[in-house]
Structures are given as C-alpha cells and as structure tokens.
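seq/struct pair 1
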Amino acid sequence: MLKSKRVMCIRGFKEFYVCHPVKLWLIAALLLISIFVVGSIFWREVFWDNFIWRYYVAPIVADVDRNSTGDISGDYNIVNTVTYGLILALSLFYILKFLKRYNIKIDKKFMFAIFPFIVSGSIARALADASLFREPLMYLFIAPVIYLFIGVFVIILLILGTFLERMLEKKDAVRILGCLYFTLGAIYVLIYFFQQDLFFRFMMHPVLFILIIAFSFVPIIFDYKNKEDIATNTTVFSIGLLFLSCSTYFTCHWLFIERWGNRINVNTYLTAGAYIFFIAFFSTFLVFIVAKLLRNKRPSVSVYASGISTMLFFAHFLDASATYFGIEYLAYSEKHVLPTYLIGAAGNAVIMFPLKFLIVALIIYLLDIRYKKEFENEQERLVGLVKIAVLILGIAPGIRDTVRMMMGV
C-alpha cells in the first residue's frame, strides 16, 4: 500500500511537471530565493558574507569601482561561472519554448534583427568602463547583468513586434511605434535638461537624438510602404538600430572629439582595433580556406566554411585576438576562470586561439555533423538558438574588449 502511494506520488509529480513545467520551476526558484533571503537575515555570515556577497555581488561591485572589494576582485570565480552557465542553459530552454509558442523562426532575418543589440550591448559595456553612466544605472551595464537586461528587453520587443504584426493593421502598428519613439524622445529631452547629472556624465544634444530616432524609424517606413504588415524582425531591428547609433556616437565622440568626466587625459589606441580585427579576420580566413580545400576528400568538412560557421569562428577569434593583444601589449588582464588558468599555464595569451578554435569546431561538429539528423525539422530552432548563444559569447566580449582598448579605458 505504501509502495503504491509512492508510485502514485511520482506519477502525479511527473504529470504535473509535463502540464505545468513553468509553474514548477517558478516554485523551485521562489523556494531557493526564500532560503537565501531567510538565511541572509538569520545566518548573515554564512549565507550573505561568505556566499552571496563573496561570489556574486562583490565581483560586480568591484567591477563597477575598478578596485578590489576587500580581497575580492572583479574577476569571475568558479562558483559564479558555473551558476551563470546553468542560468544560460535554463534561459535557452525557456527562450526556445517562447519562440515555439509565438512561432518565431530563427533564420537570417532573425539574426540580422537582433545583431544591433549584440553590438550595441558590447559597446555599451565599454562605455560603462569609460564611466559614461552614473550609479546606480552603471550596474545595468556590467556583466552578467547586461546580458540579462538586453535579453529581457529583446524578448519584450519580440512580443510587441508579434502583436503588431499579427493583431493590428499596419497603419495602427506604425502609429503605436511612432508614439513609442515620440515617448523615447520626450523622455530623453526631459533627462537632458533636468536630470542629466543623475544618470549620465555626458549626453548628446536632443536634436541629434531626434535625428537618430528618425533614422531608426526608416525600416518601419520601408515595411509600411512595401509589405502587408510591419514584420516582427523589423520592429526589433529598428529599435536595435536606435541603440546601436547612440552607442556608436558616444564611442566616436570619445575617440575623436572629447572625453567626459575625469578621463580627459586617457590615451586612445585606435590602431589596436585595426590589429585585432586583422588578426581575427586572418585566422577566420585560414579556417575557411582549409575547410574549402578539404571538402573534396571529406565532404562533411565543408560545413566549417558555411556562412554561420564563419561568423562563429570570426566572433571567437575576435575575442581571442582582443585577449591576446590586450594582455601581451597593453597590460590588460583576463577575467574568466578557464582562460586565466590556461594563459597562466601556457605563459602566453596566444593559447586563446587554439582554445577558441577547438570549442567552435566541436560545437559545429556536434550540431551540423554528428547529430544533424536528430536536430532536423523539430529541433531547428534549438540549433539556431545555440548558435546565436555561441556567437554572443564570442563577439560580445570581443567587441567590448576591442572598443575598450581603442578608448584606452
């Protein structure tokens, strides 16, 4: 009798998980958060001082202050690295469910739509190093918070774009987007004239911001003139273009006009960007040529020369190039756990190139060769999502580090 009850409980749990997986994970998350909150109140030294603060909060605070907090630096540690990896894996699972629910395809148009956010987020991270943002706004642009912030923002835009495309006439969609852009402009003007010192150390003139808004609205007008609906990807790309234009302007202002805050005498290294991009391009070109030469003997190798594979290699070679150049020539240091260990063991940051090559090559092999048949049709979104995640994990730190070195911060 006891055994049958236990079996019934297990079956009931499995049925509940199948029917309500989100609720179950939310319950588990709330339970875990409650444990840490209660523990931090009643056993502060154990839960807060020696765990949450030490491994999660203090590294972010130290990164913002650019100084060690006690004996804790802004570098990643093994505990938060594993935690962030698990959060990323769980996030990909639920993003996949979200994309399936709204029938959003991961194709070239989708990647093109989100690409401005990838680049602008990376540049914004470098601008945070240049002290463009004031606290507490600064904390939104420190990794890993910036990844969560931009990820949630893009998901909200995808929901908005889906609603505008499928539920409204294109005239109404353009009106709503026009009101959204007008509101952004109005908020910017208010902040510029009344609260500038509260959030930023420097802001572009409102007239320039309005011109950027008009420029970013062009894709919306194009869809309105040439298509039946305002596409979801167009909505996402348009707003991403706004952020990319702003972040690019701030970077160019720092490099070519003047610097803000107390960073006036900082040296810039424009040639660093040229060297880094050349090394990344040359490394990618070598992989591409070798894959092309070997495709006759091993047809499966040709997948390494495909467009998306080339993008993945370039993204991670850019990160490797920036790491190598920064450490070996400009006295920068590595923050991540595994690269720090390998660079220390090898005695030179050039080890990043074979490391990045092996990681990307293995991922491409697993997704496009070894398990290609298993991932066809139903799992195409999963493959696309994993490739986007891999792309972001390479190109985001690569661009951030490159821009940071060019700005001299």
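seq/struct pair 2
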Amino acid sequence: MKRGLGCLLVVLVVATCASAQESVADAARRLKREKESAPKSATKAKRIFTDDDVAHSSSVIAPLPPSSKPTELADWAQQREKEAQEAEIALNKLGRMNEKQLGDDAVGSTVFAGRDLWEERLAEERDRLVKAARELIAAHGEFTRAVPSGDQVRITGEAKILSEKAAEYRVAKFRYSQLVDGGQKAAAKWKEGR
C-alpha cells in the first residue's frame, strides 16, 4: 500500500511539473508574440546626444602661428588681437549682468514656459564665456609681452597657450549663442501662440 501511494505521489508530481512546464512554455510563446508585435520604437530606448557627444570641427582650433613667413605670423597675431578685443567687449557687457538682465538682453521681457530654467542655464554659460574671455585676454597679454624678447622658445610656448585659449573662447561663445538662440525661438513661439 505504501508503495502504491509512493507511485501515485510520483505520478502526481510528474503530472504537475509537466503542466507547469507547458504553462511556462505557453507564457514564453505569448511574450515572444507580444514582443514581435510591439512597435520597435516602444521597445528600444532613444539616445539623446549632448554637446559633449559630438566631435567639434577642427576649424574651432586656432592654428599655431606659421614660423616660415613674417606676414603669416603678423596675420595670425592680428587675428588673436581681434579675438582678445572681442573677448574684452563680451566680458564688459555680460560680466556685470544678473540672470534676469541676461534674459532680458536676449529676449526682452517676453515670458515663456521654462524661462526661469533657461535664464539659469544662460547665466551658467555666461560664466563659462566670461572665464574663457579672461583667460584669452591674459594669454594674449603674455604673448604680446613675449614677442619683444625675441626668445623663440618663450614666444612659441605663449603662442600655443594663446591658440588654446582662443579655441576655448570660441567654443564658449558658440555655446552661449546657441542658448540665446534657443531662448529667442521659445519667445517667438510663445508670442505666436498668444
């Protein structure tokens, strides 16, 4: 009798396991069908690219001064002089403004959704631009002081630093102007919707 109960128990366990396996298999088939019928965009996450993900054009980098022709060196130095002057103007204009003044300078008094956040971001980018402007002005001053010395090693070193700072300034200026453009578009869109 015990042996008969043991066999019956084994048969019940095997039968239960078999039905459970079929249920798991059916569930797996069902999930596979659902996955195949679902739209691809719903199952795959979209990648959002930021400025840090994008390789920047090499045209942003200011080349080192040419060493072969004096006229090319003079042209290079004149371009860096213009950039330093432009940086000083930006520094004088933007350096003293608070968030609200920056926003008003870019879009006037137009209020649009997210303006507060945009003004915060604008102030952060302005801070980066101001820092880059100060560094460019300082590097230009060092280069200018190195030239009369005639020390080629010093001049080359200062020219390299000046090139790097000029490139950093251009990137900061570009990022700031992109943010200003975004605010201007948001303000224009808000005005159209009124």
